[in-house]
Amino acid sequence: MCLIALAWRIHPDYPLVVAANRDEFRNRPTRPAHWWEDTPEVLAGRDLEAGGTWLGITRGGRFAALTNRRDPARRMESAPSRGQLVLRALTDARPPSQALSEIAEEGARYAGYNLLTGDPSELCVHDNTTGTVRTLAPGLYGLSNAHLDTPWPKLTLARARLAEALASMPDPAGVLALLRDDAPAPDHLLPDTGVGLEAERRLSPAFLRDTHYGTRSSAMILFGADGEASLREWTWNADGALVHEAVHAFRTEARHARTATPNPMEPTSP
User: Fold this and answer.
1) Which domains are delineated in the chain?
2) Residue (of 136, 131, 132, 119) closest to 60 by Cα position
3) Backbone angles phi and psi of 85, in degrees to 5
């Protein structure tokens, strides 16, 4: 994944709302979101090159997603696939914080990543560049290719638009609009991640249109307080046209608590 915006315990009916874009090389073989034949509790897309995934949910009410870190100085060509970490987080029966703490012990073996995982009890994030595992308070969060809530233009905008879209849940229109925004950020707001100005411009929109590397799919996940869950996925071609849409809805084996905070845009504590 390259962009994730999520609302955790701030909507009375949907304690977890996730909007995410997966940016990837066009020639990397991928299967859209499906129930895995070899791991039947997992609903996720699949990287057919390395066998892992970038985002998924389970029948037990677990969620996990990963973003790569953009750091040219931390290239690890022979490192294992980070997609396997998402699968480990999804299938670990322990609380998310415990699952991530074990993964963190091996984090240095991998190229830079952020790993989110949660269930009805807690939502946590692990950053392998620092080795930390953090349990998140209720709030609105954004994650791209840097630390959680690093104020890159597309992330800041995605968070704000997700806050607006919460009022119309479960209608996917607002989420899809924020994920389809292909407007580049102005130069004075661009981060400097070491890839050069042209690349920063090209990578600045939420939605990337490119024949070599771009937004391959978008996803919206809802976990309901009543135990219902859904994953809606849109798959795009190099021109940004829709080539596949899938909606998976099911009842989980666990229920999320009904909680809400007064102001979804109020800054969350570090």
Assistant:
1) 3-251 (3.60.60.10)
2) 119
3) -65, -35
